[in-house]
Amino acid sequence: MFEPEFATAYTQYDPDRARALLDGLGLKDVDGDGLREYPDGTQLTITVEFMDWETPKGITMELVSLYWREVGIDLRLKIIDQSLQSARAQANEMQMNAWHADRVTDIMVPISPDWWAPIESSWDKTLWNHWARWHLTEDRLGTEPPPVMRQLQLWADEMFTTVDPAHRIELGKKLLAISAKNIWTIATIGLAPQPVVIARNLRGVTAHGIWGWDNRWTLSYQPSTWYFDTKKLDQ
After folding, report:
1. Domain residues for 176?
2. CA angle 15, 181, 155 (to 5 degrees)
3. Tens digit of pLDDT for each residue in 93-139?
4. Nearest 5°: CA angle at 174, between 169 and 176?
5. Is 158 inside any structural domain?
6. What is the 3-class SS of 8-71, one letter each residue?
7. Residue 17 lies in a domain
């Protein structure tokens, strides 16, 4: 399912182009303080709320905030707990949220394309809870999505139910292509190494692999076959 253009879309470091794009949206620094305002003159301020656990989001977002400020965007960071995030996310009250984007590999995309289509309303997502709720309740709750989002929902449902592998890949690429074009979720870091500590006498563990939610942590490496070398228990 991997396509190079999906992975590299809008990833180049080009502050001048970023400034030009923001200017084209009417977001300009009117008062000369280095930060941009909306066309009506009010200050452009974005607050990103996140839980700083499982992955070092705080450190990452500090860098993002600095980079964005260089092109005139005032990005403010707010750490919250899970109960508050859950309430605010599902009530559609957050401007922006940071997450460690699990369920994004080929393993999980066909059965859980949460970041590519509004099909799930959840505490860890802020980008389209109301659209997902409309879809899940057959338009009884939530907000009807625009046509492009409705198409994503239909493709995601079809990808989940089809028994044709080739058709599943075709649908998955459609979802990823539209995401690469529109950047519903802004990625910051990919393929970061994850050290895993094991006992020196534990045998059968692969030297390299994928560690994360998508492959259920160690499940794909058959932990039931691991064993301790009893000759090294005292070392």
Report:
1. 4-182
2. 155
3. 889 998 887 778 877 888 888 889 999 887 777 788 899 999 999 99
4. 90
5. yes
6. HCCCCCCHHHHHHHHHHCCCECCCCCCCCECCCCCECEEEEEECCCCCCHHHHHHHHHHHHHHC
7. yes
**184-216: pLDDT as tens digits:** 888 888 777 888 899 989 999 999 988 888 888
Mean pLDDT of 16-36: 96
Domain count, the chain: 2
Same domain assignment for residues 148 and 224: no
Backbone angles phi, psi at 14, to 5 degrees: -145, 80
Assess contact for 142 and 134: CB atoms under 8 A: yes
Cβ neighbours of residue 34 under 8 Å, at least 6 residues apart? 69, 72
pTM of the model: 0.82
